[in-house]
Structures are given as structure tokens and as C-alpha cells.
Amino acid sequence: MPSHLQQSVPFFHDTVRLLSCESPARNWRRELLSCSVQELAGDAKKRSRTIAMAREIVGNLLLYLLHGNWSGSMVFCPQ
Fold first, then answer.
1. HSE-up of 32 (CA within 13 Å, CB side)?
2. Is residue 77 assigned to a domain?
3. What confidence score (pLDDT) does residue 58 get?
4. Where are the alpha helices (DSSP H) in 9-23?
5. Is pLDDT of 18 > 60?
6. Binning pLDDT at 50, 70 and 90, where does residue 47 land?
7. Is 2 part of any domain?
8. Which of 1, 3, 18, 53 is the most buried (most CB within 10 A)?
9. Is residue 4 included in any domain, yes or no?
10. Any domain includes 3
């Protein structure tokens, strides 16, 4: 059984936490910034996928046109 002195001293986890030095406005700005950064990262991923897909399409089109030029069956021949 704990002594009288041990019973009167609260455990560390039972002590009241000190309030954060940050104001609610600062927390709100931090959350907003965090959301903005996450949104920008998502937009960057979408943009890079779109660019990669466009490069693949253009590359395939060039291969098709070059192959058509070599085989003599051009789809479009400007004169």
C-alpha cells in the first residue's frame, strides 16, 4: 500500500496539461496550409499523369505516321 505522501502526489499522466502556446487562429491557418499543400500534391500527380499520357499518345502517333511513311500507306499526304 502506498504511503500517505505517495497518495498525495499525482501521477504524471494525471496532471493537467498546459495549454498550447498556439492560438486557435494559428491552428486554423496551419490546418488550412496543410490542406492546401495536400491539394497541390494531388494536382501535381494528376498533371504528371496527364502529361505522361499525352507523351505516350504523341509518341504512338509519331510511330504510326513514320511506319505509314515507310510502308507507303500514308493516311495524310499534304501536297
1. 6
2. no
3. 94
4. none
5. no
6. very high
7. no
8. 53
9. no
10. no
